[in-house]
Model the fold of this input.
Amino acid sequence: MTVKINASVLGIEEPIEVKENIKNMKRVLNVQMLIDKYDKVDTDKDTEDVYQQYLQNQLKTQELVESFTLDILGLKGKKYQNKYEELTLEDATDLMQQIATKIMHIDTSSEESQDAQKSDTESDAPVHQKSGENTDPE
Done:
C-alpha cells in the first residue's frame, strides 16, 4: 500500500506515492527521535555555550528534516534541494508532518477538533450549545 503526499509546495502538481512499509515507518520514528534529541539543550552550562548548542541543534534539525523529506519522497538532485530551501519553515514542517502522519496512520482530525474546541472556549465568543441541551434557567 501507499499513501499520497501533496508536495505542491515543491512545485509538484501530482501527489507523490510513498510506500507504507516497515522501512518507512522506521525512518519516520528515527527522524522524530533525532528531532526530540536535538530539542534538548543542557541548561547547566554557561549561557553562551547553551546558546551555541541550541543553534547547532536547530541547524542539525533543519538538515535532518530536509534530507528525510526529499529522500522519502524520492526527490533527488539540486533542483529539489533548491526548491526545498526556498520553503518557509511552516511549509517545510507541514510537509514533514503530512508524511509522518500518513505513514504512521495518525488521525489529526481529532486533534484539530480539540484545538478548535479549545480556542472556542478560550475566546470571548459565545459557546454554541448542542441540539437537545436546555440551559434556560426557567
Observations:
- Strands lie at 2-5, 16-19.
- Helices lie at 22-39, 47-72, 78-85, 89-103, 109-122.
- The chain has a mean pLDDT of 82.
- The chain has five helices and two strands.
